[in-house]
Amino acid sequence: MRKIKESCALLMLLLLIGFRTCTPVYGMELPAQEETSGMNTKTEENDVREMGSRIPVYETLGEALIRKLSEDQGAAEGKNTGITFDTVEEAVSFGRYFYRYVYWGKQEIRLAAGTGAEGITIYAWCDDMQEAVSQHWQVAAKLEETAAVSFGLSDAEKAAFFYDWVYENVNYDTTVQNKTIYDAVMEGQSVCWGYVSTYLALCRMSGLTCEPVYRGNHAWNRVWIDGRWKYCDITWDKNLGEHRWKLVSEEEMERDFLHKKL
Q1: Architecture of domain 150-260
Q2: Which of 64, 186, 70 is nearest to 128 (CA)?
Q3: By the 8 A CB rule, do 240 and 253 touch?
Q4: Where are the domains of the chain?
Q5: Contacts of 78 by beta carbon, 8 Å cutoff, 6+ apart
Q6: Which of 96, 134, 210, 223 has the fewest CB atoms within 10 Å, i.e. the most exposed one?
Q7: Given phi > 0 = left and psi -120 to 50 = alpha, else beta, which region is 119?
Q8: Close Cβ partners of 228 (under 8 Å, ≥ 6 residues apart)
């Protein structure tokens, strides 16, 4: 491990910066060019948008990573997760996906990559790994409990039920300090990413095809129902005390001036 740290310190630092600037913990804003591990802002923006669809292999690896980290006691420094990739680009892509869609805790887990005998290996750091894993499973349990209530409903009914659940249980955080799915599900307050990721997780748990939609520094959801995309912006609806953007058609969303101007 010492050899890897010494020979790949720069690479690991760059990946830490690249990963951390893309996690919802730090908001929805696109990172500045100097903080993107050599990627320009346009490339970074494209990466964010293209990562809306599910990547099953990343989810499987991410869940394995969390199980691996659950074996730790207290702080973890430079833990070899056993996850390897052929290229740095793949490692960075996995890290971003892990933060956005797999890990549901609030305690920060930092990822980096180093070159080893088997390829590009992912390492993890955390001040309190037990707390991080505990937070993740707390969220998972509550989401699973909520998703189970929708059993037997049609896809359209599930999509509406999850919209209503998020709308009723999450308040917008005007301090803009709470930005994670943990904040939304366990604390009941968050900015847009908490709304988006909670709805996304509930839909996917229940077999619905759901994706985040990014535009500017805001995000909302779309869900596939009866052969068409239906869009919902629970964040803005909650702020306005309305249901204006509850599962509207793609045509309606594209005509909406407030969302097009973002």
Answers
A1: Roll (3.10)
A2: 70
A3: no
A4: 2-131, 150-260
A5: 1, 5, 123, 124, 125
A6: 134
A7: left
A8: 249, 250
**CA atoms of 79 and 46, how far apart (whole Å):** 31
The model's pTM is: 0.81
β-strand partners of 25: none
d(CA 86, CA 88): 7
Q: What span, in angstroms and rounded, lies between the C-alpha atoms of 174 and 178?
A: 9
Alpha helices per DSSP H over 152-218: 155-169, 181-182, 192-205
- Stated as kind and residue range, the H or E segment containing 78 is strand 76-85
Q: Are 126 and 176 in contact (CB under 8 A)?
A: no
Strands (E), 89-234: 110-116, 119-126, 171-172, 189-190, 210-215, 218-225, 228-232
* Secondary structure letter of residue 25 according to DSSP: G
Scan for tokens 């890290």, then name that residue: 95
One digit per residue, the tens of pLDDT, for the chain of length 262 reads 333 333 333 343 334 434 433 333 222 222 222 222 233 334 444 444 456 899 999 999 999 999 988 886 666 678 889 999 999 999 999 999 999 999 999 999 999 998 877 889 999 999 888 999 999 999 999 999 999 999 999 999 999 999 999 999 999 999 999 999 999 999 999 999 999 999 999 999 999 999 999 988 899 999 999 999 999 999 999 999 999 999 999 999 989 888 887 7
The alpha helices in 41-100, defined as continuous H runs, are 41-50, 56-69, 88-97
